[in-house]
Amino acid sequence: MKLNVLCIGDIVGRPGRRVLAEKLKALTEELGIDCVIANAENAAGGSGLTPQIYSKMMRYGVNLVTLGDHTYRKKDIIGTLETEENICRPANFSELAAGRGFGIYKTSKGPTVGVVSLIGRLFMKPAECPYNTVDKILAKVQQQADIIFVDFHAEATSEKIAMGYHLDGRVSCVFGTHTHVVTADERILAKGTAYITDIGMTGAHDSVIGRGVENVLKSFRTRMPAPFEIATGDVKINGIIVGVDSNSKKAERIKRFRIDADSEDEKRYDSDDGRAEYYNNFQ
Hints:
Layout: E1 2-8, E2 10-11, H1 13-31, E3 35-39, H2 51-60, E4 64-66, H3 78-83, E5 87-88, E6 102-106, E7 112-119, H4 130-142, E8 147-153, H5 157-167, E9 173-177, E10 187-188, E11 194-196, E12 201-204, H6 213-222, E13 235-245, E14 251-260, E15 268-269, E16 276-277
Parallel strand pairs: 1-3, 2-12, 3-4, 4-5, 7-8, 8-9, 9-11
Antiparallel strand pairs: 1-13, 6-7, 10-11, 12-13, 13-14, 15-16
């Protein structure tokens, strides 16, 4: 069976949430999307996630939620992490940390999608080895999921690329988050795993990774503290669409997409040549 899985890059604040509310359901219907995975660790005021915003994500059409280094910034999300099966924090946090390292969603077609969340160690706060962690957790996820995606929330491109090779042939897709800047290296690896280093950001792109330009520049230039307010201009959704054969578990295609919040003609960037083409060309 063929499944289309849509992965959405880091949702930043109210602008990111608003564009999802306005655009996501129409996009999933147009493309026949079977599962939506979204990184929402910046959805609440740019840092963290609340139970209320988690519930909104579900209403917008998100099926699986991944988190990252800001997982516990809003402490009231801990209850949701402990009770809901479709939201996960990085699996290589301490084994004593609240929440689970993978999420599960049963599609309307029947096959179940699992997503594992991992966090990097280069230029990040201390965490367990993500490679060893995913090796240990995969057998458990495979008992519950027909196809598996991995969100590697990491700073260093080298660390993400290495994870792609480490998991090639063992999961259907490895996609990177955290840097908020989309990369153009999407591909199907030799053993059938879709890979991209970073799927980008859902939020205001007239910004420095979602924050107001003026104060970020001031902080960089002076090293003085300044509030990094959420930017509001040029709002976009960034992400990927991955086509997977649920029988072989292999990815058959991966495409980057972008939606402009204010565009009347919603288009995407085609992976093959960079030209803008309409979404239904993915089918």
